Amino acid sequence: MKNTRVKFKREILEAGFSTARAARLARLSPRQLDYWDRRGFLSPSLSRAEGYGSARRYSFADLVRLRVAARLRAAGFGLLRVRQAVHTLRRLDRERGQALSAHLLISGSRVLWVRSAREVVDVLHEGQLMLVFPVGREVEEMATAVARMAREPEDDLFARPARASGRAR
Question: pTM of whole model > 0.85?
Answer without folding.
Answer: no
